[in-house]
């Protein structure tokens, strides 16, 4: 399988380091191209969100693949590998499958059970597909991971009450300030996180709602969907004077809000910075009357205690991992079984041609009866071994049985290709 996952998240790395590694909009194609151009990387998918950056890859060798991917991450971070390595997590083969399924289910998220990661994982997979860097292994893995994520959300209440990074940040902020109900609120950014922020603020009773974005047309579309008012980005300074709550979630590489701009608002503010890189300059935290909640603070405040729904999700993931690995081992032996049967058919046909040449007096009926008998004998001889090798191959370490079969019968198996469009159909 040679599946490798290398990454960093809020659990292993600081926010400043994540800020250096997070992909800017439109940057993924170049990173994917660089990855698959490396000596040991055949396929790659890059997942980049507000609290993780990780690379899923099909590699030809573990150590070589790790060196390739680690080197790319170290270069992006501007750090020697020796400094970056302690903050990386590495998963290989079965552990990589388990990690992918847990990520899709929201079990590895900052806010456990949040469903936004499913969309982010789907976008990462689609981008890799468009760039041609997702082959058989990535198609199989990501399609199953997305299915498992949906199953966990459907069969448990892990995402009860609409948990998200936005709702968690808002709850944390309201613990230090007055409730947002009836208070004017502004969302900066018109992407998926901005849309989620508007929906969350609306449910919390904030009113009126404003949204601003450098691209005003996107702000207008978002405002129409959520009953908000779109305001030109140039009016941000005056807008800050009219609101009590600000949620910033842009893709800007530089801070959108700094201390002079916030201080000029002249009023108390609850500011939620949900962007990575961060939208709000650190100095804002020291301003009187300002409560700032960012990804770093939120990560430190959230508890990692598992509840019954998390445990139920983990049980589903464990069962799905085992089912996937069993199917994968069985799928890997199928070409060997097919090649063995084909070799048997070739031998039978060669011997029947030889018989026809040596015994031309045999009539058509006799030759047909002989052919039928020989085919039945060969098939009966092969039946039990091929059934048994499928069973053995489904167990851990079972690939050795298929290899033994190839060695014994000198079978040469070309690289098996599964149509990506049907990858999800072959899993039970």
Automatic annotation (TrEMBL):
**Swiss-Prot/TrEMBL keywords:** NADP, Oxidoreductase, Porphyrin biosynthesis
Q: Which ranges carry the Glutamyl-tRNA reductase N-terminal domain? A: 6-156
Give the positions of the site Important for activity. 99
Q: Which Pfam families match?
A: GlutR_dimer, GlutR_N, Shikimate_DH
Q: Where is the active site?
A: 50 (nucleophile)
According to its UniProt entry, one GO biological process term is: protoporphyrinogen IX biosynthetic process from glutamate
Q: What does this protein do?
A: Catalyzes the NADPH-dependent reduction of glutamyl-tRNA(Glu) to glutamate 1-semialdehyde (GSA).
- Protein name, as recorded: Glutamyl-tRNA reductase
Mind giving the lineage of the organism this protein is from?
Answer: Bacteria, Bacillati, Actinomycetota, Actinomycetes, Micromonosporales
Gene name for this UniProt entry: hemA
């Amino acid at each position: 399988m040679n599946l490798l996952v290398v990454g960093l998240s809020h659990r292993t790395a600081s926010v400043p380091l994540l800020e250096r590694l997070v992909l800017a909009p439109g940057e993924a194609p170049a990173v994917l191209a660089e990855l698959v151009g490396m000596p040991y990387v055949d396929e790659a998918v890059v997942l980049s969100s507000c609290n993780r950056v990780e690379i899923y890859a099909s590699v030809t060798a573990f150590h070589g693949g790790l060196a390739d991917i680690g080197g790319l991450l170290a270069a992006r971070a501007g750090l020697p590998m020796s400094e970056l390595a302690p903050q990386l997590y590495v998963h290989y083969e079965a552990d990589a499958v388990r990690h992918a399924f847990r990520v899709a289910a929201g079990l590895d998220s900052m806010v456990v059970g949040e469903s936004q990661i499913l969309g982010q994982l789907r976008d990462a997979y689609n981008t890799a597909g468009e760039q041609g860097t997702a082959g058989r292994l990535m198609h199989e893995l990501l399609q199953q991971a997305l299915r498992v994520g949906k199953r966990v959300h459907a069969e448990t209440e892990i995402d009860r009450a609409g948990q998200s990074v936005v709702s968690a940040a808002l709850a944390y902020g309201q613990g230090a300030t007055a409730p947002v109900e009836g208070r004017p609120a502004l969302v900066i950014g018109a992407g998926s996180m901005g849309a989620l922020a508007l929906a969350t603020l609306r449910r919390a009773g904030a009113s009126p709602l404003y949204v601003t974005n450098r691209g005003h047309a996107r702000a207008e579309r978002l405002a129409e969907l959520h009953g908000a008012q779109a305001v030109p980005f140039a009016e941000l300074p005056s807008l800050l004077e009219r609101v009590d709550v600000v949620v910033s979630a842009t893709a800007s590489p530089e801070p959108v809000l700094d201390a002079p701009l916030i201080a000029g608002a002249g009023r108390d503010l609850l500011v939620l910075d949900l962007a990575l890189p961060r939208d709000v300059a650190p100095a804002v935290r020291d301003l009187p009357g300002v409560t700032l909640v960012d990804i770093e603070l939120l990560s430190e405040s959230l508890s990692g205690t598992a509840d019954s729904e998390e445990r139920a999700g983990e049980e589903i993931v464990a069962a799905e991992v085992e089912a996937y690995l069993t199917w994968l081992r069985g799928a890997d032996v199928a070409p060997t079984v097919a090649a063995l049967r084909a070799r048997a058919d070739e031998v039978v046909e060669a011997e029947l041609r030889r018989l026809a040449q040596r015994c031309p007096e045999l009539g058509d009926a006799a030759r047909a009866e002989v052919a039928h008998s020989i085919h039945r004998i060969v098939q009966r001889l092969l039946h039990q071994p091929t059934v048994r090798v499928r069973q053995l191959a489904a167990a851990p370490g079972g690939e050795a049985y298929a290899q033994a079969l190839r060695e014994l019968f000198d079978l040469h198996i070309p690289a098996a290709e599964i149509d990506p469009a049907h990858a999800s159909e072959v899993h039970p």
